[in-house]
Each structure stands twice: as structure tokens, then as C-alpha cells.
Amino acid sequence: MTASLLRTTLALLFLGLFGVPEATISCRNEEGDAVDWFTFYKLPKRQNEESRRTGLEYLYLDSTTRSWRKSKQLMNSTRSVLGRTLEQLYEAYASKNNNTAYLMYNDGVPKSVNYSRKYGHSKVPEEGYDYPPTGRRNGQTGICVTFKYNQYEAIDSQLLICNPNIYSCSIPATFQQELVHMAQLCARSNSSETPARHLATLQSAQGQNFLHFAKSDSFIDDIFAAWMAQQLKTHLLTETWQRKRQELLSNCSLPYHVYNVKAIKISGQSYFSSYQDHAKWCISQKGTKNRWTCIGDLNRSPYQAFRSGGFICTQNQHIYQAFQRLVLYYENCN
């Protein structure tokens, strides 16, 4: 699982904490029970004085439920879904167990004031679980998927393309023959030439199918319009950080269109705009045959075309319906 926390997005794309086949590492819910997958939406902090929203509340959906529910915990709690899941990483780190491997990476190393536009976004605090104050202001999304070990050779190749800036890792000798790229990344050694992009089919531990789109910084284009929409054969509604003067307009120039979501509704009269949202996700336009949901770590921005990263996509109907109900309105093409 790659975890993304802090400046821009929170996207759990792989289970980057993994063990030998008999290990029981898994995504975990707030009770600490194993689940096949979960997704969440951390809500932005309200700026008005009347609101009690702290920027740590989140919506939650997993493989045992059918729709969003408001979390009982705050995101900075060790009993949150991230806290429960990442606890396995910290336990493995403390035990120095050779049956467990992990990778932790970040475009800006924790406690550093600098970050690089070159690397993938994903990140985790190194010393135990916490959620930084800088992550409270804006909305963020994430997905965790539990994979069996037989999926990790494919993940190994995808991770190389995503170009992670790894700052803490452990790939014991048990894994190095099969997970060549992870071992190279961990050792910070030069690897073979990286493909510009690659699409992988992955299957969760309980048989849920996923597609993973990975692009390197040599694929210089909008991943949504140039690749994902055309590959999935569906018009996409995209929710990414709509930073002023740094966004791409909705695109209808290709067979399958990409439309920018402009506002997210939570419940009743509660909503927020894309300017308050660092989430990065997209769904098929309502009424289309192919109903996809994708969660990842790239914005629709001219600058993001030069960044490595990717999206994990699913046709799970409950995930699609949960995200579809969040769309308040989107921007048509001019």
C-alpha cells in the first residue's frame, strides 16, 4: 500500500506493506478487522467560525458496506482506518521481521519544507502514525486494497513507473529475487529504462478486479483525457485540485470526454468547491454503460503532465454510487 498524506492528496494505491503468503497483513477497518478494501473521503476544514468541522472528519466505505458513513474517529487517531492499517507497518518496523517488507515514500520527505514536482505524491510519517496540521485544510481521498502476494510482481513494475521518492524501506532477501524493482528502489540503485506508461490488471485478495494506470514523467500529457478516458471507453467526471490559473479546462476533443467537477456535496446543504479539495478521483459520467471509479495522485493541471503517478480503477457498484452522489455540478466543454 502506498500511503499519501499531507500536501496534495491521500491515495493508497498499493499494499506496500506485505509479507510472505502465510502473513495476515490486510487493510483494516476502525475496529481493527481485516477488510478486502476500503476508501475514504477526508472532508476539508470549514473556514467559518460557526462550523465545528476540524478538517479531520472523514467519510468511509469498505468491502462489507454499501454506502458512505461518517467515521466515528478523526483522521489523526490511531483508531482511524489509516491508523489501524498502518499500525501493521510500524509493528513490522519495530520487530525487524524478515518475513515483512515495506516501502515508504513522499514527494517531500516528512519534516522537510521542500518537495519535488518530479516524484509521485504518496507519503507516510516515519515515526509512528500521525496526521499533519497541513493536511487539514483541504479535502483528500484514499483507497486501500489488500492483495495476495502473487500480485506483487505486477505491482513491482507499476511502482517503478510511478517513480517514488523512497525515504524508508525494507525489502528482505526473501523478496528480492521476485520483486527486483522494489529492491532497486529501496537501494536507490539505477534501474533499467522505465516505460512511459503501463496498465496492469490486479485482483484483490477476495477477487475484486482493479486496473492500475501508471505513468512516468516521460509520458507528458493529461492522464485523464489522453489515456484513461479513451482506455476505459467512458466520459469521465474528474475531481482534482482546481488551483486558480493552473487547471486544465474540460476536454471534448477526443472520442471520450473529460469534464471537471466544480463542487462536491456532502449532505443536505453542505458542499465545498474543488478549490478546497486536494482529492484526485474520477468517475464515469452518469448514464454511461461503463461505470468506473478511479482514485489516484495526479491533478488536471499543465504542470502535472510532467509528474509520475497513477490511478487505480474499479467497477465496484457501491464505490461508484458513493462517489457519484458527491458530484454537485461539473463544467461542460466550451
From TrEMBL:
Which biological process annotations from GO are given for this protein? apoptotic DNA fragmentation
Could you say which EC number(s) this protein's record lists? Answer: 3.1.22.1
Under InterPro entries, the record lists: DNase_II (IPR004947)
The signal peptide annotation in the UniProt record is 1-23
- Compartments, record wording: Lysosome
According to its UniProt record, this protein's enzyme class is: hydrolase
- What keywords would UniProt list here? Endonuclease, Glycoprotein, Hydrolase, Lysosome, Nuclease, Signal
Per the record, GO CC terms?
A: extracellular region; lysosome
Q: Which reaction does it catalyse?
A: Endonucleolytic cleavage to nucleoside 3'-phosphates and 3'-phosphooligonucleotide end-products
Task: Give GO MF terms, alphabetically.
Answer: deoxyribonuclease II activity
What family does this belong to? Belongs to the DNase II family.
What does this chain do? Hydrolyzes DNA under acidic conditions. Does not require divalent cations for activity. Participates in the degradation of nuclear DNA during lens cell differentiation.
Q: What is this protein called?
A: Deoxyribonuclease-2-beta
Q: Which organism is it from?
A: Myotis lucifugus
Q: Taxonomic lineage per UniProt?
A: Eukaryota, Metazoa, Chordata, Craniata, Vertebrata
